[in-house]
């Protein structure tokens, strides 16, 4: 795989994370260049969610470094020493990263439109009229222009997840993180969410996507990373990692995914 020029938007080096005495991430390296889509595949428990949470400081890493757009995540260097950032500074870093979860996590008491305008108004201070105008555009982009006034309970899982994507985009993030965004959906609703994600990818959104949708990864990813047991087992172009995996663990995992997909 040829490396794009320039500094990666996300650069992770030797990232370690422990929960108590259990080492969950054992030295993860990753580069994500601006405009790239990176898909993270791997069995349950391999550390995919933990790694995503480290990228946006929902977890604090025990060793290694992560940079997003040149800034160290959660840390600052002063006088040759590293200091942990204050919570307010961590919150500021996190604003620039959109995250979409398996469970859509919409505010149940707010309409689709209100869910999308909430953070831009409260956190970024965007004027109300402008936030509403942008939110309408975003809901249209995810195919929900006619659902702006509906509450989450009035929407299907696929529609709720598309609102969640619009809500994340409303903060104009530099980077979008997706953690198994379709795995809580009924099978017939998966396609509409993946279609929105394909469009985002085509528009040049930088995305890190944890997914079991092997076909999506094969078609959309610039880079596929296969994780198991807290390490990157294999990474590269989808044609290599999915089409012609080198490692036995990758082959076993893909065979199981294909089998489940056709079951
Ligand atoms: N907050 C936590 N406390 C203790 N263990 C955790 C916590 N979060 C995750 N783990 C453990 O870390 C490992 C990796 O979990 P996770 O990152 O969720 O994997 P994946 O997303 O690949 O399924 C699992 O063994 C899980 O039980
Ligand atoms: Mg997970």
Which short descriptors sum up this protein?
globular; 4-stranded antiparallel sheet; membrane; AAA+_ATPase; cell membrane; nucleotide-binding; 37% helix; amino-acid transport; binds adenosine-5'-diphosphate; alpha/beta; 9 helices
Topology, pairings included?
Blueprint: E1 10-19, E2 22-32, E3 37-41, H1 48-55, E4 63-68, E5 71-72, E6 75-78, E7 81-84, H2 87-95, E8 97-100, H3 112-122, H4 128-141, H5 157-169, E9 175-179, H6 187-202, E10 207-210, H7 214-220, E11 223-228, E12 231-236, H8 238-241, H9 248-262
Parallel strand pairs: 3-10, 3-11, 8-9, 9-10
Antiparallel strand pairs: 1-2, 1-4, 4-5, 6-7, 11-12
Helix pairs in contact: 3-4, 3-5, 4-5, 5-6
The structure holds adenosine-5'-diphosphate and magnesium ion.
Describe this structure in words.
With 263 residues, this protein is of the alpha/beta class. Helices cover 37% and strands 25% of the residues. It has nine helices and twelve strands. It has helices at 48-55, 87-95, 112-122, 128-141, 157-169, 187-202, 214-220, 238-241, 248-262; strands at residues 10-19, 22-32, 37-41, 63-68, 71-72, 75-78, 81-84, 97-100, 175-179, 207-210, 223-228, 231-236. The strands form three sheets. It has a six-stranded mixed β-sheet, sandwiched between helices. A four-stranded antiparallel β-sheet has the order 2-1-4-5, with helices on one face. Strands 6-7 form a two-stranded antiparallel ribbon. The longest helix has 16 residues, at 187-202. The model has no long low-confidence stretch (mean pLDDT 94). The structure holds adenosine-5'-diphosphate (ADP) and magnesium ion. Its main location: membrane. It comes from Kineococcus mangrovi.
């Amino acid at each position: 795989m040829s490396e794009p020029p320039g500094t990666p938007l996300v650069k992770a080096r030797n990232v370690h994370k422990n929960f108590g005495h259990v080492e969950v991430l054992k030295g993860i390296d990753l580069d994500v260049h601006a405009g790239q889509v990176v898909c993270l595949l791997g069995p349950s428990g391999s550390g995919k969610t933990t790694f995503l949470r480290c990228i946006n400081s929902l977890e604090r890493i025990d060793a290694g470094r992560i940079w997003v757009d040149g800034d160290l995540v959660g840390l600052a260097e002063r006088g040759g020493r590293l200091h942990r950032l204050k919570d307010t500074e961590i919150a500021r870093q996190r604003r620039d990263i959109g995250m979409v979860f398996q469970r859509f996590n919409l505010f149940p008491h707010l309409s689709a439109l209100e869910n999308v305008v909430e953070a831009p108004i409260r956190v970024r201070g965007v004027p109300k009229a402008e936030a509403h105008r942008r939110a309408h555009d975003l809901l249209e982009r995810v195919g929900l222009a006619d659902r702006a006034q509906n509450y989450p309970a009035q929407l299907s899982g696929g529609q709720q997840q598309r609102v969640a994507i619009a809500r994340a985009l409303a903060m104009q993030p530099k980077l979008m993180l997706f953690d198994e965004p379709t795995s809580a959906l009924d099978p017939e609703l998966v396609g509409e969410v993946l279609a929105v994600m394909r469009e985002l990818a085509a528009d040049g959104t930088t995305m890190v996507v944890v997914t079991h949708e092997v076909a999506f990864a094969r078609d959309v990813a610039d880079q596929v990373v296969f994780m198991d047991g807290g390490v990157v087992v294999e990474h590269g172009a989808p044609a290599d990692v999915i089409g012609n995996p080198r490692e036995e663990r990758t082959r076993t995992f893909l065979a199981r995914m294909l089998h489940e997909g056709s079951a």
